[in-house]
Amino acid sequence: MKAPIDFYFDFSSPYGYVASEKIEGLAGRHGRGVVWHPMLLGVVFKQTGAMPLTQVPLKGDYSRRDMARTARFHGVGFRLPSTFPIATQAPARIVLWARDRDAALVPKIIHALYRAFFVDDVDISSADAAAAVAASCGADGASARAAVDDSSMKEALKRENEQAMSRGVFGSPFIIVDDEPFWGVDHLEQVDRWLATGGW
Amino acid sequence: MKAPIDFYFDFSSPYGYVASEKIEGLAGRHGRGVVWHPMLLGVVFKQTGAMPLTQVPLKGDYSRRDMARTARFHGVGFRLPSTFPIATQAPARIVLWARDRDAALVPKIIHALYRAFFVDDVDISSADAAAAVAASCGADGASARAAVDDSSMKEALKRENEQAMSRGVFGSPFIIVDDEPFWGVDHLEQVDRWLATGGW
Questions:
Q1: Which of A198, B83, B157, B169 could form a disulfide with B174 if both were Cys (CB 3.0 to 4.6 A apart)?
Q2: Of the candidates B55, B44, B169, B62, the residue with the CA atom closest to the CA atom of residue A49
């Protein structure tokens, strides 16, 4: 059994969303699973001095256009949410909570949360909204909601962020294949070839 | 005859270099030519607040690795120059000078300058070194060298930068196909599909 690949993402990242829709199929074609790592880009941006793309002069207009175009390029439904970017502690903590309880639920909840935000324009920064999405996947809604304010889940997310940064993660999506790092949905082609060949 | 595509680049940009090696073949397969636009990323970065990639915390190590990996992915020779990044006024002005005199020389000089920097580790920020590379392509070396300090070439480069920014260019490589903008060597696949289909 080959090692799974690591997929780091922030729930507010459009490119993370698009990649999340493709990564399991891509990994699966090479006999690999996916380990999902929700994280907070805002924490990383404090280190790198980066800003949300849409707020950068010149890059802002381009990035709004490119997000939609890249989603269409990959055949993934997308519209820029009316509130964007958002804080993503609530959905990230719910994912970590689910991971401790029912690992099979994790990808379901991630896809449902991402689609709620980037297709149905649900503001998943709201703990109530994020918990409702988790409940729609079969999780216990009240427990999911409580997890958002649970200090152990807050700590778990902090640890995830620290571990991500210690592995050099600074953007979303960020994919690590056998210690080889790839940043960006635009690198899926390189990830695919790396999985096929073991490097070049 | 279809309109040529516009290729904006900075001579200090590794991703611009890799794309410069692929763009004519890609455009040619769709019956398109390439208009080359040397520019100064430093001028744009003042507007966007960006820094050279290798100087950004966390991103620096990754970008050095990714530059070499991306070059190999595309089958392009590459090593990170011992002096990097560099100021690129000299090679950019020589290209603009050649454009006014012998358009056929322009792509030859661009490829030779880029390869001198990213393959042979020649510091092309030096006016003498850049002029020598132009001379090796058949340009008059003394005139090329003089162009670097020529006030009309300084003005021409300023105009190129201003025109680039007015078209929304903020990085290298930056490719515009019939008013559709694409940033980054990672977007060559999208450029290819856009040229084939006229958009999606």
A1: B169
A2: B55
B59 contact A CB<8A: yes
Chain A residue with minimal CA distance to B70?
A: A190
Residue B144 has pLDDT above 90, yes or no: yes
- What CA–CA distance (Å, rounded) separates A82 from B168? 24
This prediction's pTM: 0.94
Contact (CB<8Å) A58/B70: no
Count CB neighbours of A177 within 10 A. Answer: 21
Q: Flag whether residue B34 sits within 8 Å of chain A, measured between CB atoms.
A: no
Report pLDDT digits (tens) over A14-44: 999 999 999 999 999 999 999 999 999 988 8
B58/chain A closest Cα distance in angstroms: 6
- Convert B74-128 into a string of H (helix), E (strand) and C (coil): CCCCCCCCCCCCCCCHHHHHHHHHHHHHCCCHHHHHHHHHHHHHHCCCCCCCCHH
B79-114 as b/e: b if 16+ CB within 10 A: eebeebbbebbbbbbbbbbbbeeeeebbbbbbbbbb
Tokens at B24, concatenated: 């004519």
Task: Give the up-direction half-sphere exposure of residue A97: CA atoms within 13 A in the CB hemisphere.
Answer: 27
C-beta separation of A124 from A90 below 8 A: yes
Of A58, A73, A170, the CB nearest to B190: A73
- Amino acid in position B172: S
pLDDT at A55 over 80: no
Using the structure block, give the residue that is written with the tokens 């990830």: A191
The ipTM is 0.92
Could you tell me if A80 and A90 are in contact, meaning their C-beta atoms sit under 8 angstroms apart? no
Tell me the HSE value of B3 on the side-chain side, using a 13 A CA sphere. 9
Measured distance CA(B159)–CA(B40) in Å, rounded: 11
- Asked if A123 contacts A129 with a C-beta cutoff of 8 angstroms, the reply is yes
Tell me, what's the pLDDT at B78? 98
